Amino acid sequence: MTPSATDATSPNVGSLDIEFDHHGLFNTLVASMAELLESIAGVEDACAYVSSIAARLGADVEKQYKAALGVQNLNRSQLVDVLIDLKNRAGGDFSLIEQDEDRIVFGNRACPLGAAASNHPSLCMLTSNIFGRMAANTVGYAAVDLEQTIARGAASCRVVLNLKRTELGPDTREYFRDDASTASP
């Protein structure tokens, strides 16, 4: 007879109060990767790396939204709705603060990456890149300014999406239409 791995006096391992689940695994993995990348390559290069990943992710998500909406290109109203929906589906708490002809300002009270983003500003390139590229594909040009972020210690994020050329701040990133985005799906 094979000995049992469970002792009759031991509690059921599955019922133990351990703070680890799929969210814990995700947060630990993402935070550890960001910390390693930022410490080895530096924040600037880490931002470039995360931007590359975000470009692929954003292109795929943009195609999905366009297909689901039955459109070849998003209009500005759809763009705003899609960006908010995308981030909120991912676990954020994004909302529209204001908009005019030249810019759209979003607020966010919960980072989609949770605690993993804390002190890892390179992860904000997911938002910058996806917002910037999708907006540029919609109107031709975008510049994203992450005025405040949870990753840098703020209580909330403020993301300014400039739709016309403007004087760029030191951390503002420019995006241009991807000609492939206008091709039919």
Overall spatial form: globular
Distance between the termini: 61 Å
In total, the number of strands is 5
Rg (CA only): 20 Å
Residue share in β-strands: 15-25%
Main β-sheet description: 5 strands, antiparallel
Q: How are strands sequenced across the largest beta sheet? A: 1-2-4-3-5
Helix content: 40-55%
The whole-number mean of residue pLDDT values reads: 89
Low-confidence stretches: none
3D structure, described in words:
This protein has 185 residues and is an alpha+beta fold. 41% of the residues lie in helices and 16% in strands. Strands 1-2-4-3-5 form a five-stranded antiparallel β-sheet, with helices on one face. Helix 1 crosses helix 2, helix 2 crosses helix 4 (125-139) and helix 3 (76-89) packs antiparallel against helix 4 (125-139).
Q: How is this structure best summarized?
A:
It contains 4 helices and 5 strands. It is an alpha+beta fold and 185 residues long. It starts with 21 loop residues before the first helix and ends in a 9-residue tail after the last strand.
